[in-house]
Amino acid sequence: MKPFTTLSAPVVPLRLANVDTDQILPGRYLRKPRSAGYEHFLFHDLRRDAHGDPDPEFVLNKPAYATAPILVADRNFGGGSSREGAVYALVDQGIKVVLAPSFGDIFASNAAKNGLLTVAVARDVIERIWEVAEADPESPLTIDLAAQTLRIANEDAVPFEIDPFRRECLMKGLDDIDLTLSHSDALDAFETEYANRYGFRNPT
Predict the structure, then answer these.
(1) pLDDT tens-digit readout, 164-189
(2) Separation between Cα atoms, residue 135 and residue 152, nearest integer Å
(3) Same domain membership, residue 63 and residue 35
(4) Most buried residue, 44, 65, 79, 98, by CB count within 10 Å?
């Protein structure tokens, strides 16, 4: 997992609330291996019209927003089931940050474990970001995780809150495996002490 410190980039203004994990990644695609390219299934049904053709009005189908790495959505983004594949689809698309007024708790936890930063900010800030992005798709939003601020174009910085543990893991690029390995010395010492106490042979 790559460390996250700062990012200044265009945004995807997704004016939708209550986008659940089944809308992010429809359940029928969970049977496919991630190597199939989960980005191809991201918002699959939302991105298509009644005939199954790409909807030109859906924001990610517009060339101006197709590769932007910051997604800005409305409230309760990622609610619903706990499927981690929803996070995979966003990450594989190249999304590095999702902003919304609120998130599904399990989605936010899964996101942090896969290097995807989720930031909960006030609805009026979200609205302002949408306005700027729709007026100028190339206008950057700057996220500074160390300072816990975001800046819309050249406007004043806006502070945000984030769980300190998630912040540290994201800034250091630590997933669950990395966290476990960071305690390898203590684990080795425990195994040695346990083997000596109970007469087992330490396999290491």
Answers:
(1) 999 999 999 987 776 666 667 777 77
(2) 13
(3) yes
(4) 98
